[in-house]
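Task: complex structure prediction.
Instruction: return C-alpha coordinates for all chains below.
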Amino acid sequence: MAEPDPQLFDKIVNLSKRRGIVFPSAEIYGGFRSAYDYGPVGTLMLRNVKDAWWRSMVQLRSDVVGLDASILSPPAVWEASGHLANFTDPLVDCRHCGARHRQDKLEDPVQCPTCGTRGELTEPRQFNLMFETQAGPVKDAGAVAYLRPETAQGMFINFANVVNTSRKKPPFGIAQIGKSFRNEITPGNFVFRTREFEQMELEFFVPPGDAEQWYEYWCQERYQWYVDHGIPADKLRLRPHGPDELSHYSSGTSDVEFLFPWGWDELEGVANRGDYDLTQHIEYSGQRLEYFDQAANERYVPHVIEPAAGATRTMMAFLMAGYDEETVNDETRTVLRLHHRIAPYKVAVLPLSKKPELIEPAKDLAATLQPHWMVDYDETQAIGRRYRRQDEIGTPFCITYDFDSLEDKAVTIRDRDSMDQVRLPIPDVVDWLSERLK
Ligand code: GAP
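Output:
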Protein backbone atom coordinates (compact mmCIF):
# COMPACT_ATOMS: atom_id res chain seq x y z
CA MET A 1 0.00 0.00 0.00
CA ALA A 2 1.32 3.44 -0.92
CA GLU A 3 2.22 5.84 1.89
CA PRO A 4 1.60 9.62 1.80
CA ASP A 5 4.74 11.65 1.15
CA PRO A 6 4.56 14.83 3.29
CA GLN A 7 7.55 16.42 1.46
CA LEU A 8 5.81 16.21 -1.88
CA PHE A 9 3.57 19.17 -1.06
CA ASP A 10 6.39 21.76 -0.93
CA LYS A 11 8.05 20.21 -3.97
CA ILE A 12 4.89 20.68 -6.03
CA VAL A 13 4.33 24.24 -4.81
CA ASN A 14 7.97 25.12 -5.66
CA LEU A 15 7.89 23.41 -9.03
CA SER A 16 4.63 25.20 -9.85
CA LYS A 17 6.16 28.59 -9.15
CA ARG A 18 9.49 27.83 -10.81
CA ARG A 19 8.05 26.45 -14.04
CA GLY A 20 5.03 28.70 -14.59
CA ILE A 21 2.40 26.20 -13.56
CA VAL A 22 0.59 28.01 -10.73
CA PHE A 23 1.35 31.42 -9.20
CA PRO A 24 -0.14 32.92 -6.03
CA SER A 25 -2.65 35.54 -7.18
CA ALA A 26 -1.94 39.29 -6.88
CA GLU A 27 1.57 38.47 -5.70
CA ILE A 28 2.95 41.94 -6.47
CA TYR A 29 0.41 43.32 -3.96
CA GLY A 30 1.30 40.83 -1.27
CA GLY A 31 -0.98 38.07 -2.54
CA PHE A 32 -4.69 37.34 -2.19
CA ARG A 33 -5.25 34.41 0.10
CA SER A 34 -6.65 31.30 -1.51
CA ALA A 35 -6.64 32.62 -5.08
CA TYR A 36 -4.23 31.33 -7.71
CA ASP A 37 -3.28 32.21 -11.26
CA TYR A 38 -2.37 29.52 -13.77
CA GLY A 39 0.83 30.32 -15.65
CA PRO A 40 1.77 29.47 -19.25
CA VAL A 41 2.46 25.80 -18.45
CA GLY A 42 -0.38 25.40 -15.93
CA THR A 43 -2.91 26.92 -18.30
CA LEU A 44 -2.11 24.22 -20.84
CA MET A 45 -2.27 21.49 -18.23
CA LEU A 46 -5.58 22.65 -16.74
CA ARG A 47 -7.04 22.87 -20.23
CA ASN A 48 -5.84 19.32 -20.92
CA VAL A 49 -7.48 18.04 -17.73
CA LYS A 50 -10.77 19.59 -18.82
CA ASP A 51 -10.38 18.38 -22.41
CA ALA A 52 -9.64 14.82 -21.23
CA TRP A 53 -12.78 14.88 -19.06
CA TRP A 54 -14.89 16.31 -21.88
CA ARG A 55 -13.54 13.76 -24.33
CA SER A 56 -14.48 10.84 -22.05
CA MET A 57 -17.75 12.24 -20.76
CA VAL A 58 -19.18 13.93 -23.86
CA GLN A 59 -17.25 13.32 -27.07
CA LEU A 60 -16.96 9.54 -26.81
CA ARG A 61 -20.59 9.05 -25.70
CA SER A 62 -23.92 9.37 -27.47
CA ASP A 63 -25.90 9.81 -24.27
CA VAL A 64 -24.36 13.05 -22.95
CA VAL A 65 -24.68 16.63 -24.22
CA GLY A 66 -22.93 19.79 -23.04
CA LEU A 67 -24.05 23.01 -21.41
CA ASP A 68 -22.41 26.31 -20.50
CA ALA A 69 -24.71 28.05 -18.02
CA SER A 70 -24.24 31.45 -16.42
CA ILE A 71 -22.28 31.92 -13.22
CA LEU A 72 -24.58 34.63 -11.86
CA SER A 73 -28.00 33.46 -10.79
CA PRO A 74 -31.02 34.79 -8.89
CA PRO A 75 -31.86 33.76 -5.30
CA ALA A 76 -34.84 31.68 -6.50
CA VAL A 77 -32.48 29.04 -7.89
CA TRP A 78 -30.68 28.67 -4.57
CA GLU A 79 -33.83 28.76 -2.55
CA ALA A 80 -35.18 25.85 -4.58
CA SER A 81 -31.90 23.93 -4.53
CA GLY A 82 -31.68 24.19 -0.76
CA HIS A 83 -28.36 26.04 -0.81
CA LEU A 84 -29.69 29.19 0.90
CA ALA A 85 -30.84 27.11 3.83
CA ASN A 86 -28.34 24.28 3.88
CA PHE A 87 -25.10 25.17 2.15
CA THR A 88 -23.39 26.04 5.40
CA ASP A 89 -20.37 25.04 7.42
CA PRO A 90 -20.19 25.26 11.23
CA LEU A 91 -18.00 28.25 12.12
CA VAL A 92 -16.28 28.73 15.47
CA ASP A 93 -14.26 31.75 16.68
CA CYS A 94 -11.35 31.63 19.08
CA ARG A 95 -12.02 34.20 21.84
CA HIS A 96 -8.30 34.33 22.57
CA CYS A 97 -6.75 35.06 19.13
CA GLY A 98 -9.79 35.78 16.95
CA ALA A 99 -9.03 33.02 14.41
CA ARG A 100 -11.97 31.33 12.71
CA HIS A 101 -12.22 27.64 12.00
CA ARG A 102 -14.55 25.02 10.59
CA GLN A 103 -15.71 23.10 13.62
CA ASP A 104 -16.06 19.82 11.71
CA LYS A 105 -12.39 19.98 10.64
CA LEU A 106 -10.92 20.52 14.14
CA GLU A 107 -8.65 17.75 15.35
CA ASP A 108 -9.44 18.63 18.96
CA PRO A 109 -12.98 20.10 19.39
CA VAL A 110 -11.95 22.43 22.25
CA GLN A 111 -8.53 23.62 21.07
CA CYS A 112 -7.78 26.51 18.69
CA PRO A 113 -5.37 25.20 15.98
CA THR A 114 -3.96 28.71 15.48
CA CYS A 115 -2.92 29.69 19.03
CA GLY A 116 -3.34 26.38 20.86
CA THR A 117 -5.60 27.86 23.58
CA ARG A 118 -8.11 25.39 24.99
CA GLY A 119 -11.70 26.07 25.98
CA GLU A 120 -11.95 29.46 24.22
CA LEU A 121 -13.83 28.40 21.09
CA THR A 122 -17.34 29.85 20.67
CA GLU A 123 -20.46 27.79 20.03
CA PRO A 124 -20.68 26.97 16.30
CA ARG A 125 -22.70 29.23 14.00
CA GLN A 126 -23.88 28.10 10.57
CA PHE A 127 -22.02 30.11 7.93
CA ASN A 128 -23.41 30.14 4.37
CA LEU A 129 -20.67 29.59 1.80
CA MET A 130 -22.31 31.34 -1.12
CA PHE A 131 -20.88 34.61 -2.45
CA GLU A 132 -23.60 37.21 -2.61
CA THR A 133 -23.42 40.15 -4.98
CA GLN A 134 -25.76 42.58 -6.69
CA ALA A 135 -26.84 42.59 -10.30
CA GLY A 136 -27.43 46.09 -11.71
CA PRO A 137 -26.84 49.60 -10.40
CA VAL A 138 -29.47 49.72 -7.66
CA LYS A 139 -28.54 48.18 -4.36
CA ASP A 140 -31.82 46.76 -3.10
CA ALA A 141 -33.19 43.36 -2.19
CA GLY A 142 -34.35 42.75 -5.77
CA ALA A 143 -30.79 43.07 -7.07
CA VAL A 144 -29.34 40.23 -5.02
CA ALA A 145 -27.56 37.61 -7.08
CA TYR A 146 -25.24 34.73 -6.22
CA LEU A 147 -22.09 33.39 -7.78
CA ARG A 148 -22.88 29.72 -8.28
CA PRO A 149 -21.34 27.40 -5.66
CA GLU A 150 -21.72 24.43 -8.05
CA THR A 151 -22.35 24.15 -11.78
CA ALA A 152 -25.02 21.48 -11.20
CA GLN A 153 -28.04 23.77 -10.84
CA GLY A 154 -27.49 25.08 -14.39
CA MET A 155 -28.21 21.57 -15.65
CA PHE A 156 -31.37 21.16 -13.57
CA ILE A 157 -32.93 24.48 -14.47
CA ASN A 158 -32.22 23.81 -18.16
CA PHE A 159 -33.51 20.23 -18.05
CA ALA A 160 -36.63 20.99 -20.13
CA ASN A 161 -34.68 23.20 -22.57
CA VAL A 162 -32.19 20.42 -23.20
CA VAL A 163 -34.79 17.64 -23.51
CA ASN A 164 -36.82 19.73 -25.95
CA THR A 165 -33.87 20.71 -28.13
CA SER A 166 -31.56 17.69 -28.02
CA ARG A 167 -34.07 14.84 -28.52
CA LYS A 168 -32.34 12.94 -25.70
CA LYS A 169 -34.32 10.73 -23.37
CA PRO A 170 -33.34 9.08 -20.09
CA PRO A 171 -30.88 7.62 -19.52
CA PHE A 172 -28.96 10.68 -20.72
CA GLY A 173 -26.71 13.30 -19.20
CA ILE A 174 -25.86 16.99 -19.31
CA ALA A 175 -22.21 17.87 -18.74
CA GLN A 176 -20.67 21.18 -17.82
CA ILE A 177 -17.24 22.55 -16.99
CA GLY A 178 -16.89 25.92 -15.35
CA LYS A 179 -16.03 28.12 -12.43
CA SER A 180 -17.72 27.84 -9.08
CA PHE A 181 -17.28 29.98 -5.98
CA ARG A 182 -17.46 29.16 -2.29
CA ASN A 183 -16.56 31.42 0.57
CA GLU A 184 -14.63 28.64 2.28
CA ILE A 185 -13.88 29.30 5.96
CA THR A 186 -10.53 27.56 5.75
CA PRO A 187 -9.19 27.44 2.21
CA GLY A 188 -5.82 25.78 1.95
CA ASN A 189 -3.47 23.08 0.79
CA PHE A 190 -2.51 25.08 -2.30
CA VAL A 191 -5.21 24.68 -5.00
CA PHE A 192 -6.95 21.84 -3.16
CA ARG A 193 -9.48 24.12 -1.47
CA THR A 194 -9.84 27.62 -2.90
CA ARG A 195 -12.68 30.13 -2.97
CA GLU A 196 -12.75 30.22 -6.76
CA PHE A 197 -12.28 26.90 -8.56
CA GLU A 198 -13.36 24.93 -11.58
CA GLN A 199 -15.73 22.00 -11.61
CA MET A 200 -16.45 19.28 -14.15
CA GLU A 201 -19.92 17.95 -13.48
CA LEU A 202 -22.30 15.52 -15.11
CA GLU A 203 -25.99 15.25 -14.23
CA PHE A 204 -27.16 11.91 -15.56
CA PHE A 205 -30.98 11.57 -15.70
CA VAL A 206 -32.35 8.04 -15.42
CA PRO A 207 -35.69 6.25 -14.94
CA PRO A 208 -36.20 5.98 -11.14
CA GLY A 209 -35.96 2.19 -11.09
CA ASP A 210 -32.52 2.28 -12.75
CA ALA A 211 -30.87 4.77 -10.40
CA GLU A 212 -28.97 2.29 -8.25
CA GLN A 213 -27.50 0.49 -11.24
CA TRP A 214 -26.36 3.78 -12.84
CA TYR A 215 -24.90 4.94 -9.54
CA GLU A 216 -22.69 1.83 -9.45
CA TYR A 217 -21.81 2.32 -13.11
CA TRP A 218 -20.66 5.92 -12.63
CA CYS A 219 -18.65 5.09 -9.51
CA GLN A 220 -16.64 2.55 -11.51
CA GLU A 221 -16.37 4.74 -14.63
CA ARG A 222 -15.05 7.70 -12.70
CA TYR A 223 -12.54 5.68 -10.69
CA GLN A 224 -11.27 4.13 -13.91
CA TRP A 225 -10.94 7.55 -15.61
CA TYR A 226 -8.21 8.57 -13.16
CA VAL A 227 -6.40 5.24 -13.59
CA ASP A 228 -6.60 5.54 -17.38
CA HIS A 229 -5.06 9.00 -17.16
CA GLY A 230 -2.06 7.87 -15.18
CA ILE A 231 -2.89 7.90 -11.47
CA PRO A 232 -1.55 4.67 -9.94
CA ALA A 233 -4.33 2.47 -8.55
CA ASP A 234 -2.63 2.29 -5.13
CA LYS A 235 -3.07 6.07 -4.76
CA LEU A 236 -6.78 5.99 -5.55
CA ARG A 237 -9.77 4.61 -3.75
CA LEU A 238 -13.54 4.75 -3.88
CA ARG A 239 -15.01 5.49 -0.46
CA PRO A 240 -18.77 5.34 0.24
CA HIS A 241 -20.04 8.10 2.58
CA GLY A 242 -21.45 7.22 5.96
CA PRO A 243 -25.05 8.39 6.63
CA ASP A 244 -23.85 11.41 8.71
CA GLU A 245 -21.67 12.68 5.83
CA LEU A 246 -24.33 12.84 3.12
CA SER A 247 -25.20 16.22 1.57
CA HIS A 248 -28.73 17.53 1.98
CA TYR A 249 -29.75 16.21 -1.47
CA SER A 250 -28.01 12.84 -1.54
CA SER A 251 -29.32 9.36 -0.86
CA GLY A 252 -25.91 7.83 -1.55
CA THR A 253 -22.46 9.22 -2.34
CA SER A 254 -19.05 7.73 -2.94
CA ASP A 255 -15.91 9.80 -3.16
CA VAL A 256 -13.05 9.04 -5.47
CA GLU A 257 -10.13 9.77 -3.15
CA PHE A 258 -6.46 10.36 -3.87
CA LEU A 259 -3.55 9.84 -1.52
CA PHE A 260 -2.47 13.48 -1.07
CA PRO A 261 0.66 14.33 0.97
CA TRP A 262 -1.62 14.87 4.01
CA GLY A 263 -3.48 11.57 3.50
CA TRP A 264 -6.58 10.37 1.65
CA ASP A 265 -8.84 13.19 0.48
CA GLU A 266 -11.62 13.83 -2.01
CA LEU A 267 -11.05 14.27 -5.71
CA GLU A 268 -14.59 13.77 -6.86
CA GLY A 269 -17.99 12.88 -5.44
CA VAL A 270 -20.41 10.54 -7.21
CA ALA A 271 -23.89 11.13 -5.76
CA ASN A 272 -27.28 9.58 -6.18
CA ARG A 273 -29.40 12.75 -5.95
CA GLY A 274 -32.69 10.92 -6.52
CA ASP A 275 -35.43 13.25 -7.77
CA TYR A 276 -34.54 15.91 -5.19
CA ASP A 277 -33.43 18.68 -7.55
CA LEU A 278 -36.03 18.39 -10.29
CA THR A 279 -38.81 18.05 -7.71
CA GLN A 280 -37.60 21.16 -5.89
CA HIS A 281 -37.48 23.17 -9.12
CA ILE A 282 -40.93 21.90 -10.13
CA GLU A 283 -42.28 23.10 -6.79
CA TYR A 284 -40.55 26.48 -6.74
CA SER A 285 -40.87 27.37 -10.44
CA GLY A 286 -44.27 25.85 -11.13
CA GLN A 287 -42.86 24.41 -14.39
CA ARG A 288 -43.25 20.81 -15.58
CA LEU A 289 -39.79 19.31 -15.44
CA GLU A 290 -40.89 15.74 -15.94
CA TYR A 291 -40.11 13.38 -18.73
CA PHE A 292 -42.93 11.95 -20.82
CA ASP A 293 -42.12 8.45 -22.00
CA GLN A 294 -44.27 8.12 -25.11
CA ALA A 295 -43.70 4.40 -25.60
CA ALA A 296 -44.87 3.58 -22.06
CA ASN A 297 -47.33 6.51 -22.02
CA GLU A 298 -46.09 7.56 -18.60
CA ARG A 299 -44.79 10.72 -17.07
CA TYR A 300 -42.06 10.65 -14.42
CA VAL A 301 -39.46 12.80 -12.71
CA PRO A 302 -36.07 11.29 -13.60
CA HIS A 303 -33.59 10.47 -10.88
CA VAL A 304 -30.11 11.94 -11.12
CA ILE A 305 -26.67 10.39 -10.74
CA GLU A 306 -24.02 13.06 -10.44
CA PRO A 307 -20.28 12.57 -10.84
CA ALA A 308 -18.87 15.95 -9.70
CA ALA A 309 -15.13 16.57 -10.01
CA GLY A 310 -12.88 19.56 -9.46
CA ALA A 311 -10.68 20.45 -12.44
CA THR A 312 -8.16 22.42 -10.41
CA ARG A 313 -8.00 19.79 -7.68
CA THR A 314 -7.62 17.02 -10.26
CA MET A 315 -4.76 18.89 -11.90
CA MET A 316 -3.03 19.05 -8.52
CA ALA A 317 -3.48 15.29 -8.10
CA PHE A 318 -1.96 14.68 -11.55
CA LEU A 319 1.02 16.83 -10.61
CA MET A 320 1.51 14.90 -7.38
CA ALA A 321 1.00 11.46 -8.92
CA GLY A 322 3.36 12.25 -11.80
CA TYR A 323 6.19 13.81 -9.75
CA ASP A 324 9.29 11.64 -9.62
CA GLU A 325 12.95 12.09 -8.73
CA GLU A 326 15.70 9.72 -9.83
CA THR A 327 19.46 9.76 -9.84
CA VAL A 328 21.07 9.96 -13.26
CA ASN A 329 24.89 10.26 -13.48
CA ASP A 330 25.05 11.34 -9.81
CA GLU A 331 22.52 14.09 -10.40
CA THR A 332 18.89 14.24 -9.37
CA ARG A 333 16.56 14.24 -12.33
CA THR A 334 13.07 15.57 -11.58
CA VAL A 335 10.47 14.31 -13.99
CA LEU A 336 6.72 14.71 -14.24
CA ARG A 337 5.52 11.38 -15.60
CA LEU A 338 2.22 12.74 -16.89
CA HIS A 339 -0.12 10.92 -19.23
CA HIS A 340 0.48 12.44 -22.66
CA ARG A 341 -3.09 13.75 -22.79
CA ILE A 342 -2.49 15.72 -19.59
CA ALA A 343 1.08 16.87 -20.40
CA PRO A 344 1.18 20.65 -21.10
CA TYR A 345 3.43 20.32 -24.15
CA LYS A 346 3.52 17.10 -26.15
CA VAL A 347 6.84 17.80 -27.81
CA ALA A 348 9.76 20.21 -27.56
CA VAL A 349 11.99 21.15 -30.49
CA LEU A 350 15.54 21.95 -29.45
CA PRO A 351 18.26 23.05 -31.90
CA LEU A 352 21.60 21.76 -30.58
CA SER A 353 23.19 25.20 -30.87
CA LYS A 354 22.15 28.76 -31.51
CA LYS A 355 23.85 28.79 -34.92
CA PRO A 356 21.46 30.20 -37.54
CA GLU A 357 21.91 27.16 -39.81
CA LEU A 358 20.34 25.01 -37.05
CA ILE A 359 17.79 27.49 -35.74
CA GLU A 360 16.04 28.02 -39.04
CA PRO A 361 15.31 24.36 -39.88
CA ALA A 362 14.46 23.63 -36.21
CA LYS A 363 11.85 26.40 -36.31
CA ASP A 364 10.53 24.98 -39.57
CA LEU A 365 10.19 21.59 -37.90
CA ALA A 366 8.33 23.16 -34.95
CA ALA A 367 5.99 24.87 -37.42
CA THR A 368 5.30 21.49 -39.07
CA LEU A 369 4.32 19.99 -35.70
CA GLN A 370 2.30 22.92 -34.30
CA PRO A 371 -0.94 22.18 -36.19
CA HIS A 372 -0.97 18.77 -34.48
CA TRP A 373 0.24 19.43 -30.92
CA MET A 374 1.35 22.04 -28.42
CA VAL A 375 5.05 22.42 -29.18
CA ASP A 376 7.63 24.16 -27.02
CA TYR A 377 10.54 25.58 -28.97
CA ASP A 378 13.65 26.32 -26.89
CA GLU A 379 17.10 27.40 -28.04
CA THR A 380 18.49 28.73 -24.73
CA GLN A 381 21.16 27.08 -22.53
CA ALA A 382 22.98 23.76 -22.89
CA ILE A 383 21.01 20.83 -24.26
CA GLY A 384 21.20 18.90 -20.97
CA ARG A 385 19.54 21.75 -19.07
CA ARG A 386 16.88 22.07 -21.70
CA TYR A 387 16.09 18.34 -21.37
CA ARG A 388 15.83 18.78 -17.57
CA ARG A 389 13.41 21.67 -17.99
CA GLN A 390 11.19 19.64 -20.32
CA ASP A 391 11.32 16.67 -17.93
CA GLU A 392 10.16 18.94 -15.12
CA ILE A 393 7.09 20.07 -17.03
CA GLY A 394 6.34 16.57 -18.28
CA THR A 395 6.98 16.95 -22.04
CA PRO A 396 6.79 13.37 -23.41
CA PHE A 397 9.19 13.90 -26.35
CA CYS A 398 12.15 16.19 -27.08
CA ILE A 399 13.42 16.51 -30.64
CA THR A 400 16.98 17.65 -31.15
CA TYR A 401 18.07 19.16 -34.41
CA ASP A 402 21.87 18.84 -34.64
CA PHE A 403 24.64 19.41 -37.18
CA ASP A 404 24.19 15.92 -38.65
CA SER A 405 20.54 16.81 -39.32
CA LEU A 406 21.77 19.21 -41.99
CA GLU A 407 23.28 16.26 -43.85
CA ASP A 408 21.05 13.26 -43.08
CA LYS A 409 17.72 15.18 -42.76
CA ALA A 410 17.04 13.24 -39.57
CA VAL A 411 16.53 14.23 -35.93
CA THR A 412 16.96 12.61 -32.51
CA ILE A 413 13.82 12.02 -30.45
CA ARG A 414 14.26 11.50 -26.72
CA ASP A 415 11.65 9.78 -24.59
CA ARG A 416 10.90 11.56 -21.27
CA ASP A 417 10.44 8.44 -19.15
CA SER A 418 13.15 6.08 -20.42
CA MET A 419 15.47 8.80 -21.82
CA ASP A 420 15.94 6.43 -24.79
CA GLN A 421 16.80 8.16 -28.04
CA VAL A 422 15.93 7.24 -31.62
CA ARG A 423 17.09 8.79 -34.86
CA LEU A 424 14.27 9.40 -37.33
CA PRO A 425 14.01 10.92 -40.83
CA ILE A 426 12.24 14.28 -40.53
CA PRO A 427 9.39 13.33 -42.91
CA ASP A 428 8.52 10.41 -40.55
CA VAL A 429 8.28 12.49 -37.38
CA VAL A 430 4.56 13.39 -37.54
CA ASP A 431 3.50 9.76 -38.08
CA TRP A 432 5.87 8.50 -35.39
CA LEU A 433 4.52 10.97 -32.83
CA SER A 434 0.88 10.43 -33.87
CA GLU A 435 1.28 6.74 -33.14
CA ARG A 436 2.49 7.50 -29.61
CA LEU A 437 0.28 10.50 -28.73
CA LYS A 438 -3.06 8.88 -29.56
N1 GAP B 1 -22.66 19.44 -7.43
C1 GAP B 1 -22.10 18.67 -6.38
C2 GAP B 1 -20.91 19.28 -5.81
O1 GAP B 1 -20.60 20.42 -6.08
P1 GAP B 1 -18.94 18.85 -4.15
O2 GAP B 1 -18.44 17.56 -3.58
O3 GAP B 1 -19.26 19.95 -3.20
O4 GAP B 1 -20.21 18.44 -5.00
C3 GAP B 1 -17.48 18.56 -6.28
O5 GAP B 1 -17.89 19.39 -5.21
C4 GAP B 1 -15.99 18.67 -6.47
O6 GAP B 1 -15.62 20.04 -6.67
C5 GAP B 1 -15.15 18.23 -5.27
O7 GAP B 1 -14.97 16.83 -5.27
C6 GAP B 1 -13.84 18.95 -5.52
O8 GAP B 1 -13.03 18.26 -6.45
C7 GAP B 1 -14.33 20.25 -6.15
N2 GAP B 1 -14.36 21.31 -5.12
C8 GAP B 1 -15.34 21.56 -4.23
N3 GAP B 1 -15.03 22.60 -3.44
C9 GAP B 1 -13.80 23.02 -3.85
C10 GAP B 1 -12.93 24.08 -3.43
N4 GAP B 1 -13.27 24.94 -2.47
N5 GAP B 1 -11.73 24.22 -4.07
C11 GAP B 1 -11.38 23.38 -5.08
N6 GAP B 1 -12.18 22.37 -5.51
C12 GAP B 1 -13.38 22.19 -4.91
